[in-house]
Design goal:
The complex is a heterodimer of chains A (about 550) and B (about 100). Chain A has 17 helices and 20 strands. With about 550 residues, chain A is an alpha+beta fold. The longest helix of chain A has 22 residues. The mean pLDDT of chain A is about 95. The model of chain B has no long low-confidence stretch (mean pLDDT about 90). The chains are: A alpha+beta (about 550), B alpha+beta (about 100).
Chain lengths: ~550, ~100
């Protein structure tokens, strides 16, 4: 994986010193909150419901064991012994003291980490496929390109004050595991009919209050021109984005209002101009980055068989491991969704354990997934049973990947100052209600947001839940039919909302409709798409019979 | 009643104006009447509080309570981690929040 060069380290160290001084000036009164607020936000430090919250960047979700270990140590030393992994593949700490912020950033810098651009109207952490570099169905490892984007976008002076925040994702597989088309720019690296690699650019997607699926604006940008093409996309947005209205300021609104064709025309014109300016990064830099993502030293000729005699282990293998490109290896997903647990939360001890297991079994590498789980990308099949036993003993052995209990949930009103309703208690109730039936129900991606900002990706859930505030009381709207994969679609609201218990009952009825109508190997989403909303709506809103 | 609340500048902890100073405990919140904005401006300028604002509340047999769920959650901590609330020993701590 990528290791900082002297420029990277010097930039991060300088930022730590800058922020330490800014905190000192805020605390001694020489800087007002109005002056300080944009500075702390540029370093990922928010003020949330209970305290300051620090969001730490995990570029394209990739971590070393030492980095994960440090995240655990920070949870213990500066927070309350846990952290929350997010849908941006980052981690958040909920109980940070302002006076500790400089020390935390300094500790992070010792392991090549930071909180730069995890907030503010700038290009945020670029996300990617958590299986990158480990699977056979990708045309190339997308992470070097995500790293190139990280270097280009960090402290980019032209794009530090965009109309709104800006999110990018890079994948290189037809199986989209990064919700790519729901980003401001989604890039899929593809191989064209001539066998050449290129980048398909999807621009103007997003969730929030106006969800949109990004349209394709260029099917094959040459790989060495990803940066100038991205720059062209950003320039047109920066020029015309709606700075007058926060709710219309995202690029999706611009693309929609200009129209895809006109937006594309302007991007292509800007791109043609940029190509005359020689701003492409040197190919040597891309090659230097690529070398750092070379395959680890996989062992050849090892056993490709597995002892499945322990049924709990076999269930976990079937649910939480994925075929690897190297015979004898599997990709392992560690579920952070125990029954009744808080989705995405991990204790300091669990983080340190995962760091150790990465070192022992996965070439010292981990990934954070946008679904708030952790991946060990390269594990020998022969080591899986020992690994699973250690995970299970630490509460990390849930066999529920992509099942109804593998819920994406934002922090909601329990932590977030923007939220209108709590997300976590609803997730906990659903997890408990369906634990015994989740294997029978099969793949069902359920996502919960506590407000219209959609950090919990409710628009893209096979079942989505949106928490709203109805005259001071929490109310939950139900959506069906969303998807974030290669078949991206947006969910449709079923009808009137429910209270906290009512929403769980409504999901119960929806899954009953699915099981009653399921044909063959259909997933919940497939059945919904085939039979439509009506049978679900009829069951969900059916009046209870009145006796007598 | 009107309650003045904010966060501690250094720690970020939720605080409540008790009539003379800032308290971590909602039970000690004072009714600021019409003086909330004036107190908030003064305390903010002195860096004794961060982001203060006035909320509606009610006096109950158990003491002052914020009217809105968001501030009730601020008063006690996350409803899903009662071990992190200000009253971890009180089994009913979360009951009045919702």
């Amino acid at each position: 994986m990528y290791q900082y060069d002297t420029y990277d380290q010097a930039m991060v160290d300088a930022r730590v010193a800058d922020f330490r001084d800014q905190v000192r000036r805020r605390l001694d009164g020489s800087m007002s909150e109005e002056q300080f607020r944009p500075l702390r936000l540029m370093n990922g430090l928010y003020l949330q419901l209970h305290a300051y919250m620090l969001r730490v960047a995990v570029p394209y979700g990739t971590l070393s064991g030492a980095q994960m270990h440090m995240l655990g140590d920070i949870a213990d030393k500066y927070d309350r012994g846990y952290g929350h992994f997010t849908t941006r593949q980052n981690i958040q700490y909920n109980w940070i003291k302002l006076e500790d912020a400089g020390d935390i950033l300094a500790d992070l810098a010792t392991v090549e980490m930071h909180a730069i651009q995890t907030s503010g109207n700038c290009i945020r952490n670029t996300t990617s496929d958590q299986y990158a570099g480990a699977i056979a169905d990708e045309v190339v490892d997308p992470r070097p390109y995500a790293e190139l984007i990280r270097q280009w976008s960090t402290f980019h002076p032209e794009f530090s004050f965009l109309p709104r925040k800006f999110k990018m994702a890079v994948i290189a597989s037809d199986t989209d595991r990064a919700a790519m088309r729901l980003h401001d720019i989604g890039i899929q690296i593809v191989r064209n009919a001539a066998g050449e690699l290129g980048a398909a650019f999807y621009v103007g997607g997003g969730m929030g209050r106006t969800p949109m699926i990004a349209p394709l604006i260029n099917a094959c940008v040459p790989l060495d021109q990803i940066i100038p093409y991205s720059e062209a996309c950003l320039r047109v947005y920066n020029r015309h984005g709606r700075r007058d209205n926060k709710y219309k300021a995202r690029i999706k609104i611009l693309v929609h209002e200009l129209g895809k064709d006109e937006y594309t025309r302007q991007v292509e014109a800007e791109f043609a101009h940029l190509l005359t300016q020689n701003i492409e990064p040197p190919l040597a830099e891309l090659e230097r980055i690529k070398l750092q993502f070379a395959d680890p030293a996989f062992e050849g000729g090892i056993s490709d068989t597995l002892d499945r005699s322990d049924p709990d282990f076999a269930l976990w293998v079937d649910n939480n491991t994925h075929v690897h490109k190297q015979p004898g290896y599997r990709v392992v997903t560690i579920s952070l969704k125990p029954v009744g647990g808080i989705p995405g939360d991990a204790s300091a001890d669990q983080m340190r354990l995962m760091a150790k297991l990465a070192k022992d079994y996965s070439f010292d590498e981990l990934r954070v997934t946008h679904a708030q789980n952790i991946v060990l990308p390269h594990v020998q099949k022969a080591e899986l049973y020992t690994l699973w036993q250690q995970l299970d003993a630490a509460g990390l052995g849930s066999a529920n990947l992509d099942k109804i209990g593998d819920i994406i949930a934002c922090p909601g009103l329990d932590y977030c100052s923007l939220a209108n309703a709590r997300s976590i208690p609803v997730a906990q109730k659903i997890s408990e209600r369906f634990a015994a039936r989740e294997q029978q129900i099969g793949e069902l991606k359920l996502k919960i947001s506590g407000c219209i900002n959609a950090c919990g990706h409710h628009h893209a859930g096979h079942i989505g839940i949106l928490g709203v505030d109805r005259k001071g009381v929490e109310n939950y709207q139900l959506l069906l039919g969303g998807s974030e994969g290669a078949d991206t679609s947006l969910g449709t609201i079923t009808g009137p909302g429910f209270d906290e218990d009512g929403i769980v009952d409504a999901i119960d009825k929806a899954t009953d409709v699915y099981l009653a109508n399921k044909s063959g190997e259909e997933r919940f989403l497939d059945t919904y798409r085939r039979i439509g909303m009506a049978p679900f709506k009829d069951a969900i809103y059916a009046k209870e019979p009145v006796n007598g | 009643m009107k309650i003045l609340t904010g966060n501690d500048l250094k720690s970020g902890a939720v605080t409540w104006w008790d009539g003379a100073d800032w308290s971590l405990h909602i039970e000690q919140a004072a009714d600021v009447g019409e003086r909330g904005e004036e107190i908030a401006a003064r305390e903010n300028a002195a860096r004794r509080v961060l982001a203060p604002y006035v909320i509606d509340g009610a006096q109950t047999p158990d003491g002052p309570r914020p009217a809105h769920i968001k501030d009730r959650i601020r008063a006690l901590g996350p409803t899903v981690r009662l071990d992190l609330s200000l009253k971890p020993a009180d089994p009913a701590a979360g009951n009045w929040v919702i």
